[in-house]
């Protein structure tokens, strides 16, 4: 398969590097990362160690079998613009937050799948990405039900030794992942802790309460996510990625805009009472406003 990865930052570089063990991969990103990969290859460090030489470019290829979108949620429309002239068989969003597939579907002609990914990744120097936790990838039709493309994509990941499955329950899994991200990303971003601090530290009850609120909102939207399923998912991911600084904490560390609106917003701004998520969102938005990031 020829796989294009639009958004070669932390997660995109890691997954692109792992996929390049089996497939032709084009990492679409920014300089100096792209130039460093062209010159020296991509170095993956941490839990996985390898140096590999995928193609790298600042524009998308003319054709590919599969395009993975791994930009931040607020850049999804930009990713769609980057892919506008690409003849892609299928596009998969592996981003966190709600609404990315809708943005892609509205702008692109090919099938669009939803995906969830629990790998932890951190891009450090140009040409280098650390795998801070091995996880799983799940893909499927955003509306639920079977999808031949999802089967093909999961097979392609599996062939590259990535634990991947196709699911016909994506609405449930996307909300479950949202509970993980509201719980882990927002809490670690504000507490400035690694994910593992939520296993038994003082902020673990905050993460669990935020996950329960996400489950409440999911159920009010017709998705049958149990409180315990949401809190168990937070604990499992925090355990598997205990050394990771969540993607939202990485944004805070780098004084960058966060994904608060796509991740915490759907829960915090919902008509259901969600005091914990509203507090987390309010604090993150205040931090962004103070720095002119919103
Ligand atoms: N990091 C992690 O451990 C995990 C992240 N995620 C999710 O994955 C998504 C990506 O996160 P992460 O990898 O941390 O984010 P990063 O900011 O590290 O990577 C995104 C990259 O995409 C680039 N980019 C933005 N728009 C375009 C475009 N149109 N064409 C090419 N490149 C573009 C950005 O460049 P620039 O900044 O210069 O605009 C940036 O380098 C998020 O939704 C996150 O929540 C999910 C699981 C784990
Ligand atoms: C899986 C997890 C929580 C890994 O940190 C993540 O999705 C993120 O950081 O955005």
From TrEMBL:
Residues 3-143 form the Ketopantoate reductase N-terminal domain. The keyword NADP applies. One of its GO terms (biological process) is coenzyme A biosynthetic process. Keywords: Coenzyme A biosynthesis, NADP, Oxidoreductase. It is an enzyme of class 1 (oxidoreductase). One of its GO terms (cellular component) is cytoplasm. It catalyses: (R)-pantoate + NAD(+) = 2-dehydropantoate + NADH + H(+); (R)-pantoate + NADP(+) = 2-dehydropantoate + NADPH + H(+). Residues 174-286 form the Ketopantoate reductase C-terminal domain. Pathway: Cofactor biosynthesis; coenzyme A biosynthesis. The keyword NADP applies. SUPFAM superfamilies: 6-phosphogluconate dehydrogenase C-terminal domain-like (SSF48179), NAD(P)-binding Rossmann-fold domains (SSF51735). Its EC number is 1.1.1.169. It comes from the Archaea. Gene3D superfamilies: N-(1-d-carboxylethyl)-l-norvaline Dehydrogenase, domain 2, NAD(P)-binding Rossmann-like Domain. Catalyzes the NADPH-dependent reduction of ketopantoate into pantoic acid. Belongs to the ketopantoate reductase family. PANTHER family: 2-DEHYDROPANTOATE 2-REDUCTASE, 2-DEHYDROPANTOATE 2-REDUCTASE-RELATED. NCBIfam families: apbA_panE. This is 2-dehydropantoate 2-reductase. It comes from Halosegnis rubeus.
């Amino acid at each position: 398969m020829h796989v294009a990865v639009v958004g070669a930052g932390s997660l995109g570089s890691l997954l692109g590097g792992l996929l390049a063990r089996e497939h032709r991969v084009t990492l679409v990103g920014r300089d100096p990362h792209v130039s460093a990969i062209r010159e020296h290859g991509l170095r993956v460090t941490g839990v996985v160690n390898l140096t590999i030489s995928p193609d790298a470019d600042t524009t998308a290829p003319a054709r590919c079998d599969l395009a993975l979108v791994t930009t931040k949620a607020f850049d999804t429309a930009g990713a769609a613009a980057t892919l506008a002239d690409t003849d892609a068989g299928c596009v998969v969003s592996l981003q966190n937050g709600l609404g990315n597939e809708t943005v892609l579907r509205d702008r692109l002609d090919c099938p669009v799948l939803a995906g969830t990914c629990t790998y932890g990744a951190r891009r450090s120097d140009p040409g280098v990405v650390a795998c801070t936790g091995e996880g799983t990838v799940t893909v499927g039709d955003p509306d639920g039900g079977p999808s031949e493309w999802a089967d093909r994509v999961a097979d392609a990941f599996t062939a590259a030794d990535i634990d991947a499955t196709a699911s016909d329950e994506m609405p449930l899994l996307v909300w479950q992942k949202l509970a993980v991200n509201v719980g882990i990303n927002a809490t670690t971003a504000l507490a400035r802790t690694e994910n593992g601090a939520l296993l038994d530290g003082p902020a673990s009850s905050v993460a669990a309460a935020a996950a329960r609120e996400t489950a409440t909102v999911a159920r009010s939207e017709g998705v049958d996510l149990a409180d315990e399923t949401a809190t168990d998912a937070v604990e499992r991911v925090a355990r598997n990625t205990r050394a990771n600084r969540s993607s939202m904490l990485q944004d805070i560390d780098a004084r960058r805009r966060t994904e608060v609106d796509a991740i915490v917003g759907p829960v915090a701004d919902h008509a259901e009472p969600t005091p914990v998520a509203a507090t987390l969102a309010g604090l993150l938005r205040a931090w962004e406003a103070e720095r002119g990031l919103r």
